[in-house]
Amino acid sequence: MTEVGIIGAGGLTGKELLKILNKHSNILPVHITSNQFAGKKVKEVFPDLDLNKIGDLKFSHHEDKIPDKIPLFLATPNKESMELVYQFYKKEKRIVIDLSGSYRIDDLNIFQKVYGFKHQYPDIISEKVYGLTEIYREQIRKASLVANPGCYPTSILIPLYYFKDNLKYADNIIIDSKSGVSGAGGRVEDAGFSFQNIYENFRAYKILKHQHEPEIFQYLNNYSGFKNNLIFTPHLLPVFRGILSTIVIIWQKENQINDEEIYQKINQHIQNEPFVRLFKNPEEIELKNVQNTNYCDFSFRTRENTTIIISAIDNLMKGAAGQAIQNLNLILNYKEEEGLK
Amino acid sequence: MTEVGIIGAGGLTGKELLKILNKHSNILPVHITSNQFAGKKVKEVFPDLDLNKIGDLKFSHHEDKIPDKIPLFLATPNKESMELVYQFYKKEKRIVIDLSGSYRIDDLNIFQKVYGFKHQYPDIISEKVYGLTEIYREQIRKASLVANPGCYPTSILIPLYYFKDNLKYADNIIIDSKSGVSGAGGRVEDAGFSFQNIYENFRAYKILKHQHEPEIFQYLNNYSGFKNNLIFTPHLLPVFRGILSTIVIIWQKENQINDEEIYQKINQHIQNEPFVRLFKNPEEIELKNVQNTNYCDFSFRTRENTTIIISAIDNLMKGAAGQAIQNLNLILNYKEEEGLK
Amino acid sequence: MTEVGIIGAGGLTGKELLKILNKHSNILPVHITSNQFAGKKVKEVFPDLDLNKIGDLKFSHHEDKIPDKIPLFLATPNKESMELVYQFYKKEKRIVIDLSGSYRIDDLNIFQKVYGFKHQYPDIISEKVYGLTEIYREQIRKASLVANPGCYPTSILIPLYYFKDNLKYADNIIIDSKSGVSGAGGRVEDAGFSFQNIYENFRAYKILKHQHEPEIFQYLNNYSGFKNNLIFTPHLLPVFRGILSTIVIIWQKENQINDEEIYQKINQHIQNEPFVRLFKNPEEIELKNVQNTNYCDFSFRTRENTTIIISAIDNLMKGAAGQAIQNLNLILNYKEEEGLK
Amino acid sequence: MTEVGIIGAGGLTGKELLKILNKHSNILPVHITSNQFAGKKVKEVFPDLDLNKIGDLKFSHHEDKIPDKIPLFLATPNKESMELVYQFYKKEKRIVIDLSGSYRIDDLNIFQKVYGFKHQYPDIISEKVYGLTEIYREQIRKASLVANPGCYPTSILIPLYYFKDNLKYADNIIIDSKSGVSGAGGRVEDAGFSFQNIYENFRAYKILKHQHEPEIFQYLNNYSGFKNNLIFTPHLLPVFRGILSTIVIIWQKENQINDEEIYQKINQHIQNEPFVRLFKNPEEIELKNVQNTNYCDFSFRTRENTTIIISAIDNLMKGAAGQAIQNLNLILNYKEEEGLK
After folding, report:
1. In this structure, are C126 and C217 located in the same domain?
2. Residue A297 covered by a domain
3. pLDDT of A34-59, one tens digit each?
4. How far apart, in Å, are the Cα atoms of C147 and each of A44, A80, C132?
5. N or C: chain B end with fewer CB closer than 10 Å?
6. ipTM of the complex
7. Boundaries of domain holding B179
């Protein structure tokens, strides 16, 4: 049993980490922080979680002493995470899984542009491993600092990975993603996330300005060499959980892809992947199949020079807490799917 | 006061026609058909409509005699509409507004492919006017047969119209549309439209196979000359009313568009349009602003060689019944917005 | 055309008043206040309202001078309304329709207990007329100060009125009401009204402590003499509009009520009521039949010594703005349903 | 490991049984039937369930041979269950947990009236144990035939049990229950359960006619001697899971109950109950705290001669499948909460 801590455990991602770890056979949270809830028990703060193992664990203040050496999940805002990674990973030499966006982007100018502040520890950036488990599994096993991927990038980079040999022939990749409110970053006090403004409504946001677009581009380029036009548009669905992405690839010429062949190839490729599911028809991909699971479901269809991929994940699970635990399982040499199935 | 009839008045579109005409100063429905509801009063069938004028009007059987010469709205399925247009427009010389898809597509092969049956009256097709009011207004004034546009095409063809001079420089137009259940054609008895399968869920459907794609292409080509790649993907939202379309234009080269200039130009262009609203930021476009109205709202943003337009309509109003009445207002020489504001 | 003002026009009730008055033939809002929106046009603040007549009207500050003598709607919080009634009605001799709870309760001790502050103008309380139109119509015609009823009381006092001759034989009246979020008084910034806390959720609130319980009791006693046990429990539905009340009457003995007889009697009684609808079966009463209308729908069923009434209204219409305008129509001698059908 | 079967495993209750048993350490489903899905694997039929253990189990036809002696869950309609209990329990001597209503009611006349058919095996009725675990735990341990309680009765009989010593002083118990669609018995093909008819809507149903009212009365009388007036009204919420019941007790006189005293007494009483949670304030009871759990949450408040209890359960868990497995755990001498926490 490995003891761990969660910094920022009072938010949606922290809550999801607690929910998963409650049924994990090998990892036990012993130190969880939230200034808002300090002193309260987990079962008091989250009566909707059915917690037999860790219900009596109490929240600590952020300033309270953390047990030496235990690995930490950082479910903190970007700027805080930037500082905490320096302290916990660099100075205290802990294993750190950072769920924020602060160490994902390599280009400092792009980072500053999309996150709105200058990175203070550029040297550490190159030491992180990007925690997209299916793609960087071997590097993650040996990592001490994992930059856990954004929810939108996870839903996009996983399915595109299986087309990586062809992506050098793609001119444009146009991605239209739709997320439930838990994936869109709003606080319950924001009027924009009130029932009145979400229910029976739908809208796009941060058009051509979302911080996940350069993240997608960087890792897509990294694994496939793609360097052409990539467009990402996020939308806000009137549901609580789940992201569905519609990914349109425009190939340089027709017949770049034979759907049947590539289906067989991918099917073979993912045979041992515990959390990737390929479906025959893209109409079968829907949020309800992935909600509260760690799966990434996808399927695709090609016509002439266009391939459309539909993918879906649960933004709090595979898009955040689930993948974070999947990564720590690898680092600690536990079964990859422990706690997640 | 002009008396009119509605064939197929018991469905969602027929109900919306009744709701609008109840407050119309110049058009009065006197003959409405529905085999399911024949003999019942409108106010009994639709207690949720607040009908002071036509609440006591009774539904007739489809076989019942229709008053001579009155104009007719056809809110009937595609195959029925194909036959009824022949009878009511061709033989009986009535004014007909057909809300089905049966006379929109000019190419007979494409028609048969997407609608699944051979067109029996190809000669009539060329006599119709496509009822996209803002674009074909002058032709509609003189028309006797109007093929009222599909809901998705309306949300897409209106905003793109204001970019028509530039569309010859577009390589790809990628459209991702999301519709509430009332725009997706399901019947209340379909398990796919049960609460259980829609609520807290989201999915794409008819991927690369939707009958509205060739309709969009035909009229886009007609008014702009665009003939390159067009991709349309419809999705099903867990809401009742409204369509939001995300339209990505990939230009042949950068700087094809200056947002500020084109904003001013469009603003000028639509000054007298009663139902088109241009917004400064595409993030302002949302379903709740157009639900239960006849508006088409849109806005856009450009980066390098890409322009993203976001548009929204109410699928039952501007996307069906509202536009149908807007068109009949024009034909009968009434004020275009009568009954619609 | 009578010019009127709306104090506090930026909230949900103010918005509903604007929506109705936009299509009213005889009443025109010329002065509307909201510190938050001062200087902005109505159509900018509420793009989801389709306003042809008053879209360009601008919001004023609360301090701005109000045209002399025009009648005013007060859509202000309780304490503000208490003061404003003194100023506008008592000092400036205007006609005032107060939509708050500040002048509804006659008993000063009860008032202080449920509203949490001492009433400063007890003398004015007895000058108000309670604006439950169907019951106090003749008094309202002659009123200058109308205390417009609460939304829950409206849904309860209207149907019970038609049983008033029997209510002296009732021992207990147990009312279980369920309201959409717009009827429950929350602001969009309250975490309790966030999408996350309302959607796929349901709860009761203010149990045995809601300020509408004494309001219901006072007027029920006033029109029927009922003085026994009355219990009211409000609940919060995951919908936006509408209240459904389940009213259980326990009679002193069996056979107090013959459903068929009383149905005929009520049917007769409401024949000329423009906004009361009686249904045969209580299962037919549902929110969707009254949303966006000024109707109060109800039905009932009796078994032995128990009668269950189910009623429904739209809380923003008949439960607030609609009834307020219905009352002003009466005072100004316009057609009672003008603007409301 | 005990092998079991599920008859009628293709519906919502069957699906929930499969979901729970997938993570049960001691009970393994080996034979599951559904004519609709016969031949298919569980993971194909329910891709939204994350099934590691039983995903490859195939559905059988109802006629297929069932392994000898294994205990069976009956998730079948009332009439079928009546027959199957005779066959499986009486003739084949199996342990049977019947989730239908067919063996719950002792009075044959009442049974016929509320279920609409005559009971064919009256002798068996007296052999069943009613499976309300918290109340009949010791009898259940020794039972071979369990009539698993209805979802509404579970939400009502559990909290009332802790008031049983006082209920002889109650005159009236008025219960207003609200259920998500999964508890209201509709099939996805019923128009009444379409998204269009549930969403942004609310209504009561089966008023004074619901089959669960006599079930509640019978067992309430059984454990407390209550024999006065009991009224139960069910309502349909626009959510998928969960029941919240508002239970109003009218005592014969005031001061029958001291809230603080009874709170302490109940708190003591439930100390070892794994699935009963008492809250301080009835406003804290909400659906989201019990969804996807086996808990029954409740709280209460008294004023003069009235006590209001608010309770909540998940209708598919504690209201059906969860409680069924809790009962089989008792019979098989496994830990009561196995598979349920």
Report:
1. no
2. yes
3. 999 999 999 999 999 988 899 999 99
4. 43, 53, 9
5. N
6. 0.96
7. 152-315
